[in-house]
Write a structure and sequence with these properties.
Blueprint (H helix, E strand, L loop, with lengths): L2 H9 L15 H10 L5 H4 L4 E4 L3 E2 L19 E3 L5 E4 L8 E4 L9 H6 L4 E2 L3 H14 L3 E6 L4 H8 L1 H9 L3 H23 L4 E5 L12 H7 L1 H14 L4 E5 L8 H6 L4 E3 L8 H8 L4 E6 L4 H4 L2 H15 L5 E5 L9 H16 L2
Parallel strand pairs: 1-7, 7-8, 8-9, 9-10, 10-11, 11-12
Antiparallel strand pairs: 2-6, 3-4, 4-5
Helix pairs in contact: 6-7, 7-8, 8-10, 14-15
Length: 357
Amino acid sequence: MTKRENLLRSLRREGFEKIPCDIPLTVTKIKEFRKRRPFRFISSYYDFSHRLSGCLYKAGYKGNGKQLFSHLSLPKRFDVDPFGVGMSYGSKEAYHMCHFHSPLEGESTTLEQIKNFKLPTPIPGMEILLKIFVKYCHRNGLAAMGYVEQTVWERAWLIRGMNNLMMDMMMEDDRATAILDRITEHSCTTVAMMARTGHDIIALGDDVGMQSTLMMNPDLWRKWLKPRLSKVIRTIKEINSDAMIFYHSCGYIEPLIPELIEIGVDILNPVQPECMNFKEIHHLYGDKISFWGGIGAQTTFPFGTTDDVRARVRELFEICGEKGGLVISPAHDLSPEVPWENQEAMLDEVRKLNIGR
């Protein structure tokens, strides 16, 4: 079978010929890869079964967007994304991380300002480009995966400010309804385009977990975020019922997993092992949902040995068994301190397991 067929069968827990893998990298690690493996592509070198697309947007503001932050003393390196969110950067050692600046932050922000804030629109011809991308993937036996990062919660708080949005939600302020509804509709427009163009997997993402607890009371999530995420998923399924729904949240989100399954999530990422026990999660939910991730990007990859990485690959494979339901991957983009040998060990161990099949 093709890599696409193999991946989708595994994610549907129908068995597989080869164990699929993924290895997301920070910009620093991408540069290291290019230096160590010139003239090679990451996706083909690591034998990915999928290729990733996203929507390109035309900003709603004019110019470079810095006028949205005229009240701040801006550092030299300050970028504004198409949604109007500012980004300033820290030390050279952590330059792949940034501090976000929210354009609608502050108690003085009015409901009208939120309603009138200009959100970006897809660039002209975006749907045609996505259709070409999907055709390329399928022609080459690869799965097409579209990512709508920061689907509801994250995108809304990045614009409004996390503290302000949390308070708006707690106080049942109309400003929370306005920003969350606008972001939900915006995401529905994007996922509809991905569904129409035939993406096999549509990935959604909102970090709602911290290291050992949820970011908010589950009831708050159920009231404000669950119905909106459900609407985004319904939008996809109404257009393309075969599309698989991938959901990303870092951290501890175990209390939400049954409800994510309920609203249509097919694939959970990354099941961060520093926060949740993969074996226990699989035991409870492995017949209802598949998993993408599982190897610690805070622990095993940066601080473990190559033997630790290999052992974790084998452990994940043994837990999931012959039905599949697993893409072996780091639980987050690999950061600069991860030894090259460790990421190579993951790839090599997956290959060894596949040769033995």
